[in-house]
UniProtKB/TrEMBL annotation:
The keyword Isomerase does not apply. GO terms for molecular function: hydrolase activity; metal ion binding. Residues 47-460 form the Sulfatase N-terminal domain. Keywords: Calcium, Hydrolase, Metal-binding. PROSITE patterns: SULFATASE_1 (PS00523). It comes from Niastella vici. It comes from the Bacteria. Belongs to the sulfatase family. This is Sulfatase.
Length: 617
């Protein structure tokens, strides 16, 4: 049996309110009794814990889950640990991160959208401010005697707090992390990042940010282990990779030159075959039809193929590059004899593959809302093909055809909370001292809210009743501990809602009801330029799927089982009220507000702006 605490005791908070003084204070030292509070100490043998969260990686990208992009580090961790094939995210970055860090649903911790000024709203589920009674994993683990470090992308600090004047209570160091090195927003240039160390902005060193954050993570671990060899640490490693901009060191530029010349249609066919062979999808799975907006590869011109393939070569190099950086951490742990007692959770993507690269691919964006034709954009990309992947490509993102390919075997993409393509991501759990079924496959349903309770139970820790004197609210996550040694155990996470700016879904016992919102709009930059994009929520078309038999949503059963659909729609309403999802807010509303903020800023400064972080999903 793996060391841990029972599922029952997991739900009970340890009472950790401040200790009352237990000494005696007399008039003199002789008639007094000294006392000091008992130091917080982790249980003997408690594992180090590392959470790795990649950005904008589809289910069919990494070789660890059948993709054609080599990720040898992730392959190794999966082959010595467990692959979870039915794991889910929130379909976009900030909601996923807030849910992951707290073990609670995105709107319940006020992150229905973003913490950015132009992408938040003054409602309980939408204001972008995680409440203090919903503590983060760092706060929980520090109460259990851990040192806590974070590097890379944080993404849940409100814009107005993200200056050197603070306040700092919503920065990582204000949310339980002893040290932080990375960026607070949703996106940053990998060579000129908006870089923060602890509670101050600092000057980047000119290297690729992913190399710098990895150096810093290794430094944190080394210093801590030298000072306190028996004290466990928690590392939250959340690189910007592979979110735009796709930028890699020059030595990686041609790693995959010519490797994707066969195109996205062949890629999809090869990947689904690999996934079946690997056992991460059902053996009878079928590939969904190519999205109607994407052209068949064999109909493209030679110049189109050349440009599109180059975007994918750089993306692939970027994913392998970040895999290599994780490999540096794994190797360091081996060198200091800590790997066997380190518990890894590797989430390959905070949502599905990004659809923000447009049909043509993006190098640099113009002002938000600017109308650029496909022909103009392609011509510019062709002329500047040598800039793809370089520091000059400040918003490099691959074309939509590659997003669909790297999302194999699912339909649709990031932001589509209604679809598995937006929310279905790979999970790897690796723990040499605690997992016996090396290379095992687990198909139990899971969600990012489950990672915190799983961590606590597997590591044999306790949830604190209080953090900084504030009584803590309950979690919504369900520990996956029960599945570690039982591949056939029934899923215990049986109900989950999804919502991103209009698109929404509700899952219950294998059934899923879902509604797309603005389904005909792909590129948000184009959407923002539309004169009229209003779309009533009442007009959204709901679909119904039995994921137990149709895991990648090929057969809509809404007309066949209208009562089941009605039942799930009612459940969504109940759930939405419970977790502060209402009011429903869609992309059109958000983009209008974002443009208003951008235009207002331009009028005040006399300079064009894209509203900073708010323009970076």
């Amino acid at each position: 049996m793996i060391a841990g605490i029972s599922a029952l005791s997991l739900g009970v908070h340890a009472q950790s309110s401040p200790q009352t003084y237990q000494g005696v204070v007399g008039k003199t030292y002789a008639d007094s009794k000294e006392w000091w509070p008992t130091p917080v100490k982790a249980p003997a043998g408690a594992p180090n814990i590392i959470w790795i969260l990649l950005d904008d990686v589809g289910f069919g990208a990494s070789s660890a889950f059948g993709g054609l992009i080599p990720t040898p580090t992730f392959d190794s961790l999966a082959n010595q640990g467990l692959r979870y094939t039915n794991f889910h995210t929130a379909a976009i970055c900030a909601p996923t991160r807030a849910a992951l860090l707290t073990g609670r649903n995105q709107h319940y911790v006020h992150m229905g959208g973003f913490a950015h000024t132009a992408l938040s709203a003054g409602f309980p589920g939408w204001d972008g401010r995680i409440p203090a009674d919903k503590g983060t994993v760092a706060e929980v683990l520090r109460e259990n005697g851990y040192n806590t470090f974070a590097v890379g992308k944080y993404g849940v600090t409100p814009d107005e707090d993200a200056t050197d004047a603070g306040p700092f209570d919503r920065w990582p160091t204000g949310k339980g992390f002893d040290h932080f090195y990375g960026f607070l927003g949703s996106q940053t240039d990998q060579y000129k990042p908006d870089l923060v160390e602890d509670n101050a902005h600092v000057t980047p060193d000119g290297r690729n940010l992913n190399e710098s954050i990895t150096d810093k993570a290794i430094s944190y671990i080394s210093k801590q282990k030298k000072a306190a060899p028996d004290k466990p640490f928690f590392l939250y490693y959340a690189p910007g990779a592979t979110h735009a901009p796709h930028q890699v060191p020059s030595s990686w530029f041609d790693l995959y030159k010519g490797k994707f010349d066969e195109g996205w249609d062949v890629y999809r066919e090869k990947v689904i075959a690999n996934q079946k062979k690997l056992g991460v999808i059902p053996a009878n799975a079928q590939l969904p039809a190519r999205n109607e907006y994407i052209k068949a590869w064999n109909t493209l011109t030679p110049d189109q193929k050349k440009v599109y393939a180059r975007f994918m070569e750089i993306y692939a190099a970027y994913l392998t590059y970040i895999d290599a950086q994780v490999g540096r951490i794994v190797n360091h742990l081996k060198e200091i004899n800590q790997l066997d007692n380190t518990l890894f959770f590797v989430i390959i993507g905070d949502n599905g593959a990004s659809k923000e690269g447009t049909f043509q691919g993006v190098l640099n964006r113009g002002p938000l809302g600017a109308k650029v034709s496909d022909e103009e954009q392609f011509k510019s990309n062709l002329e500047k093909i040598g800039e793809i992947g370089t520091p000059s490509g400040t918003n490099t993102n691959y074309p939509l055809g590659w997003a669909q390919a790297t999302n194999t075997p699912f339909k649709y993409w990031k932001q589509d909370a209604n679809a598995e393509g937006g929310t279905h991501n790979p999970l790897i759990i690796f723990y040499p001292n605690g997992i016996k079924d090396k290379g095992g496959i687990r198909n139990q349903y899971g969600h990012v809210v489950d990672i915190l309770p799983t961590t606590i139970e597997l590591a044999g820790l306790k949830l604190p009743g209080y953090v900084k004197g504030i009584k803590q609210d309950t979690l919504q996550g369900t520990s996956l501990y029960y599945s570690l040694e039982n591949a056939t155990a029934q899923s215990r996470h049986t109900e989950q809602y999804y919502y991103i700016f209009g698109s929404r879904a509700i899952y219950k016992d294998g059934w899923k009801a879902a509604a797309a919102h603005h389904p005909d709009y792909i590129d948000l930059n184009v959407l923002s330029g539309k004169d009229s994009v209003e779309h009533s929520f009442d007009k959204d078309v709901w679909e119904l799927y039995n994921l137990n038999e149709d895991f990648n949503e090929r057969n809509d059963l809404a007309k066949k089982y209208p009562e089941k659909l009605k039942e799930l729609q009612g459940l969504f309403d109940v759930t939405a009220k419970r977790y502060n999802v209402y009011p429903l807010i869609d992309w059109a509303d958000v983009l209008k507000r974002r443009l208003h903020v951008a235009n207002h800023a331009s009028a005040n400064t006399g300079n064009p702006t894209n509203a900073g972080n708010a323009a970076k999903e």
